[in-house]
Amino acid sequence: MQSPSFFRTRAVAAWAVSVLGLACGGDDIIAPDTGGITVTTATTGPPSSTAGYTIRLDEGAPRPIDVNASLTLSPITPGEHSVRLEGLSGACTVAGANPRRVDVPAGDPVELRFEITCAPLPSGVTIVTTTTGLFPDPDGYTVQVDRAPGLPIAPNASLSVGDLSAGTHRVELDGVAGNCTVEGDNPRTIEVVAGAVLAVEFAITCSGVVQRWTRLDGGTGADLPDVWGSSGTDVFVVGEVEADDGVASLILRYDGTRWDRQLRQTDLRLRGVWGTSATNAFAVGFRFFSPDAAVFRYDGTQWSEVPGFASDGSEALALNAVWGSSATDVFAVGEAFDGQFSRSLIFQYDGTGWRRLPEPEPLAPTLLDVWGSASDDVYVVGRDDIGEPASGVILRYDGAAWTPVVQEEGLLLNGIWGSSASDVFAVGFEFTESDGNVELAGTVRHFDGTAWSRMTVPAVGVLHEVWGSSSSDVFAVGEDGVVLHYDGATWTESRPGDQTLLGVWGASPFEVFAVGNRGLILRGTP
Q1: In CATH terms, are 36-118 and 124-206 the same topology?
Q2: d(CA 223, CA 217)
């Protein structure tokens, strides 16, 4: 009889033989139920164009892959899947669809190839400007890289300049206004790296207002009542000087470096100057030894007297100021003396010729200055000596008639200017009499679009003229070389001159000219 261990041994042997037989028969016991994808990247182009990519299967996490490499994604459930190549730089493009749809079978991974072409990365600079301050440069700047032509850039902007070779380059910010300062080096030397864009930042600070006055030598001791220009390098002043051949009037022109005399004529007193451009300016005044008014016009080359301002003999004509809304709409104002009283004198130019306008009614004051915001919004200031008592007057012209808007006893207004129809300044003085003594005090009147009011100003003497660049940057000049500045809230006082200042005008908020007695010419800068 066989023992039980014998039967157990035979059973185990039989099971082993059957299993080996199945294994050697060619079919696995369990078929594979997953697959995979082998992704290959093939990149052509400069190596610096990209640092590598990532592969994303369906919505899974990205996996890094080099520019020329293979990566097997597994296990993957058989079926359709999406494979996306990501991390492409702007210089690289992939051929074919991206993402790709891939049908994954069970078993060995399928092959997927991405062919990428990369161009050289650009080498260059990005220039960035950051400007701070109340009065930034209005026309922006220019950027010059090496010796290339300058490129415009705004006060707060960026500008890219490409196609630069690797190595040393020069970057300069130019065209910076006189009130603005560039922080740091300018120009700057930079090192450009191949395939890289370097940022170059310029910080610019622009100061607010004129802070420094410099005396200019005009080469004359003449009294200078008015100044105007088309720019800081094209400025005219008018004046008069006593000479061996009598009193003579002058016109001087400043070219940014020096003053040159353009006109000298005896029997002439010029009181005002104004124009529309470097080739169209007017100077007005009167004759000493005849009752005629005088108008001269500049054409860019020379000054010529304009006919048509002779008196008929019944009155003496004098013009004190000139202003226009355009080259074809100009007003010249002054006074006509009939032997007893001085009354208003107004001429208007329409681009073809001058005509005398009727006297304003019911008032016809002596007129000392003129300014307007438009052809139908013109103001004149002056003095009414006919009425009792005499009074300071402001008249407004609406294109058809003149209307008094201010009439005040004990007031005389010499100058007027505004930044808009609702922001107008008139300057002069008030006078009071006590015990036979007359006291004078400078005054400024302001129109806000609704009403005229007296402004609070420092205690100064007579104010003769006013000009500004904006409602918050206004200058008034007067007796004893005083300059008042208004910042939109407060008037402050300085005294840069040693003689009375009679006229003021500016090319910009950063370059202002003031003129006065005995040849005094001041240039104000930040």
Answers
A1: yes
A2: 13
CA atoms within 13 A on the CB side of 380: 35
Give Rg (Cα) of the chain: 43
Q: Which of 122, 131, 72 is nearest to 102 (CA)?
A: 72
For residue 494, the cross-strand partners are: 483
**Residue 24: exposure state from Cβ atoms within 10 A (0-12, 13-18, ≥19):** exposed
> For domain 124-206, which architecture applies?
Sandwich (2.60)
350, 344 Cβ separation under 8 angstroms = no
Handedness of CA 380, 382, 386, 388 (dihedral sign): positive
- What does the CA dihedral 205, 209, 213, 216 come to, rounded to 10 degrees? 80
CATH superfamily of 212-525: YVTN repeat-like/Quinoprotein amine dehydrogenase (2.130.10.10)
Measured CA to CA, the distance from residue 287 to residue 270 in angstroms comes to: 9
CATH number 2.40.30.10 is the correct assignment for the domain at 36-118: no
Give me the residue spans of the domains in the chain: 36-118, 124-206, 212-525
Per-residue pLDDT of the chain (526 residues), as tens digits, is 444 444 443 433 443 334 334 344 444 456 678 999 999 999 998 776 677 899 999 999 999 999 999 999 999 999 999 999 999 887 789 999 999 999 999 999 999 999 999 887 778 899 999 998 767 777 899 999 998 899 999 999 999 998 888 889 999 999 998 778 899 999 999 999 877 889 999 999 887 677 789 999 999 999 999 999 999 999 999 999 887 777 889 999 999 999 999 999 998 999 999 999 999 999 999 998 899 999 999 999 999 999 999 999 999 999 999 999 999 999 999 999 998 889 999 999 999 999 999 999 888 999 999 999 999 999 999 999 887 777 999 999 999 999 999 999 999 999 999 999 999 999 999 988 777 787 899 999 999 999 999 999 999 999 999 999 999 899 999 999 999 999 899 999 999 988 999 999 999 888 999 999 999 999 998 7
pTM exceeds 0.85, yes or no: no
